[in-house]
Amino acid sequence: MALLSAWRNGDQRAGNQLLQRYFPSLYRFFSGKVGDEVDDLIQRTFLALVRHRDDIRDDASFRAYLFTVARHEFYRYLRTRRRRREPLDFGTVSLADLKTSPSGVVARQKDHERLLIALRQIPVDLQVALELYYWEELSTRELAAALEVPLGTAKSKLRRARERLRRALEQQVGVSLSLLKSVDNLEAWAEAMRNKGTA
Fold first, then answer.
1. DSSP 133-180
2. Strand-pair partners of 94
3. Which residue from 154, 157, 131 is spatially nearest to 29, judged by alpha carbons?
4. Domain count, the chain
5. Residue 15: enclosing H or E segment and its boundaries?
6. In the chain, N or C terminus with fewer CB closer than 10 Å?
7. How far apart are CA 70 and CA 124, in angstroms?
8. Contacts of 151 (CB under 8 A, 6+ apart)
9. How many CA atoms lie within 13 A of 109 on its CB side?
10. CATH, residue 28
11. Is the CB of residue 140 less than 8 Å from the CB of residue 158?
């Protein structure tokens, strides 16, 4: 990537262009999870990228690296907001368990609202996997890099995430069959969310 190479060689304009290019993706990633602190988390992510720009391997996807950093910043944010001091297991705890507020996410349709509620019921690491794969359109290789897991593990996380999302929807009262079928077609829903600018 030419911009990345130029930035690593000291071209600040290239760095600004690179970060501007990915700002909407980061905004989408954080906005449904942290409420009013989106800008702060984006800034922290960008600062971490600047500090560690020389650690970005040329053969690695910049997007995967970007979301690795964003995921770490998000998890750090969740840990610091937790009053109790026991460690958090993002493989089992959901945002609903942590009682974080999704302010700024306004569901215009009932199905959209129910999908968002269900998404927040699944473990955080599975929610992040779904969002990076469907909303940000990372390939399974990029997803594996962003999650810092082997490729097979990333694929199995996606399968488990879809299953958990379906179960979370089934537990809601009055969920339609068409909504349950939408779990099988998350690409279409994610595209609609990207067009709305929310996740």
1. IIIS---HHHHHHHHTS-HHHHHHHHHHHHHHHHHHHHTSTT--HHHH
2. 123
3. 131
4. 1
5. helix 12-34
6. N
7. 13
8. 140, 141, 144
9. 9
10. 1.10.1740.10
11. yes
Q: How far is CA 167 from CA 46, 122, 152, 170, 196, in A?
A: 36, 9, 23, 5, 26
Q: Which distant-in-sequence residues (6+ apart) come within 8 Å of 100 by Cβ?
A: 33, 34, 35, 78, 81
As a whole number of Å, the CA-based R_g of the chain is: 17
In the structure encoding, which two tokens stand for residue 75, read together? 């998890």
Locus of tokens 């290239």:
14
CB 167 within 8 A of CB 119: no
pTM exceeding 0.70: no
Residue 110 belongs to domain spanning: 2-196
pLDDT one-digit tens code per residue, 122-163: 999 999 999 899 888 899 999 999 999 999 999 999 999 999
Q: What dihedral do alpha carbons 126, 131, 132, 133 form, nearest 10°?
A: 90
Cα 77 to Cα 112: distance, rounded to the nearest angstrom: 26
